[in-house]
Design a protein that fits this description.
393 residues; 3 domains; Butyryl-CoA Dehydrogenase, subunit A, domain 3; alpha+beta; single chain; Butyryl-CoA Dehydrogenase, subunit A, domain 2; four-stranded mixed beta sheet; 46% helix; globular; binds flavin-adenine dinucleotide; Butyryl-Coa Dehydrogenase, subunit A, domain 1
Length: 393
């Protein structure tokens, strides 16, 4: 695959780099300086900061790079999107914050929604005037998403929703949500689900925060008690929700900058080792060499994945290889940082002796969640085994 960029693409890169050079000066000091204390990731201050930055990127035309101009996107190419993720990661800039909206809720509406739905929702997803969250997982439906039990039964021109969702990231902040619910309890598991849009202000929705092991409350459990959703808020046809959810995820692009993010973490690791005066320890040097190889493997897996997307328009099941390798590599790096820190690894944010304000303790614990959200490592291994290698179930 030829990864040479066209003149237009290089011009796009230059414009983005110039924009970042000017605008990153406005970022608070804690963003770029690990020793400066910053707000908790689940705090009101961090939320306000994330929205402020998202809107700046949007106003500069960097949200929805491949999305149609008619709905507020940039109408650009996949390569421009790649450049965007590369430069953002290289500059260590904060990303867009409406992650679910841009990742899959928007793409679901763009691919399967009506013209009215696209005009109503897409521009406000891009501008982050409306934050989105996702209601797929339930206590009895995670990896086995087709087992969703929450019901949405038709009553006149509404669906009436009853049930419980769990692990709903950002539901406490969201204005709108996508909901996978059972609209035909008699149909086979995959066939009786529908994809509905939920206004979070609708009566009957209760959101309760759940604190994860990092100590922050980023996700929630959500209860639906006779929640009435107008029929026109369905995406695609009734009982076709499974296919809408799967189809929308194919366009999730946030992984495009993942390999550079790993390289950044590796560089940060070198900084910690130097600060700890352990650069000459032969065992540490040996482990670093191994991690360096793996960081480069992640880079080339990313390029292979990109080649596939450029050729076929979608990553296909092979996309799970890079994704699996990346989350597992991140866990290995984070574990190694804990070893390097020795007894200091026990000190969390808030301790005056915690290394770099305890940011590594957070990222170490958070790396576990990253290997569960959007599909566990075991499920990714199953996909690779069955759909790439052709092994039996
Ligand atoms: C940080 C975080 C954020 C999340 N955000 C959201 C969100 O916003 N919205 C949302 O809907 N969900 C969200 N989730 C939920 C996430 O999608 C599920 O946790 C995930 O799909 C796994 O489902 P589960 O927790 O029910 O585990 P289970 O499916 O019960 O799995 C339990 C264990 O069994 C293994 N397992 C299950 N089935 C198989 C199999 N067939 N073969 C081999 N092993 C198997 C799994 O890998 C896992 O180790 C989030 C999760 C996390 C950690």
């Amino acid at each position: 695959m030829d990864f040479t960029f066209t003149l237009e693409e290089e011009a796009f890169r230059t414009r983005l780099k110039e924009w970042l050079a000017v605008n990153m000066k406005e970022l608070p000091r804690w963003w770029a300086h690990p020793d400066v204390p910053g707000p908790e990731i689940d705090s009101e201050e961090f939320h306000r900061f994330s929205i402020w930055w998202h809107r700046k990127l949007h106003q500069a035309g960097f949200a929805g790079i491949t999305w149609p101009i008619a709905y507020g996107g940039r109408g650009g190419t996949l390569m421009e999107e790649v450049i965007f993720h590369q430069e953002m990661a290289l500059h260590r800039a904060p990303g867009l914050t409406n992650v679910h909206g841009i990742g899959w809720c928007g793409p679901a509406i763009l691919r399967f929604g009506t013209e009215v739905q696209k005009k109503r929702f897409i521009p406000k997803i891009l501008s982050c005037e409306e934050m989105w969250c996702t209601f797929y997982s339930e206590p009895e439906a995670g990896s086995d998403m087709a087992n969703v039990q929450t019901r949405a039964l038709e009553e006149g021109d509404h669906f009436v929703v009853n049930g419980q969702k769990v692990w709903s990231s950002h539901a406490h902040l969201a204005d709108w949500a996508v909901l996978l619910a059972r609209t035909d309890p008699t149909a086979p598991k995959h066939r009786g689900l529908s994809y509905l849009l939920v206004d979070m202000k609708t009566p009957g929705i209760t959101v309760r925060p759940l604190r994860n092991m990092t100590g922050t409350a980023e996700f929630n459990e959500t209860f639906f008690d006779n929640v009435r959703i107008p029929r026109h808020q369905i995406i695609g046809e009734k009982n076709m929700g499974w296919y809408v959810a799967a189809g929308a995820l194919e366009f999730e692009r946030s992984s495009l900058g993942q390999a550079i993010a790993r390289e950044n973490t590796f560089k940060d690791l070198i900084r910690v080792i130097q600060q700890q005066g352990k650069s000459n320890d032969p065992l540490i040097r040996y482990r670093m060499a191994q991690l360096f190889i793996e960081v480069n493997v992640a880079k080339y897996l990313g390029l292979r994945n990109l080649t596939k997307q450029l050729r076929d328009g979608r990553p296909g099941p092979e996309g799970s290889i890079g994704s699996l390798f990346n989350v597992e590599l991140n866990k290995r790096i984070q574990e190694f940082v804990m070893e390097v820190q020795g007894p200091y690894s026990r000190l969390m944010r808030g301790s005056p002796h915690a290394i770099e304000q305890g940011r590594w303790q957070y990222s170490f614990l958070r790396s576990r969640g990253a290997s569960i959200e959007t599909g566990t490592t075991e499920i990714k291994r199953n996909i690779i085994a069955q759909r790439v290698l052709g092994l039996p179930r």
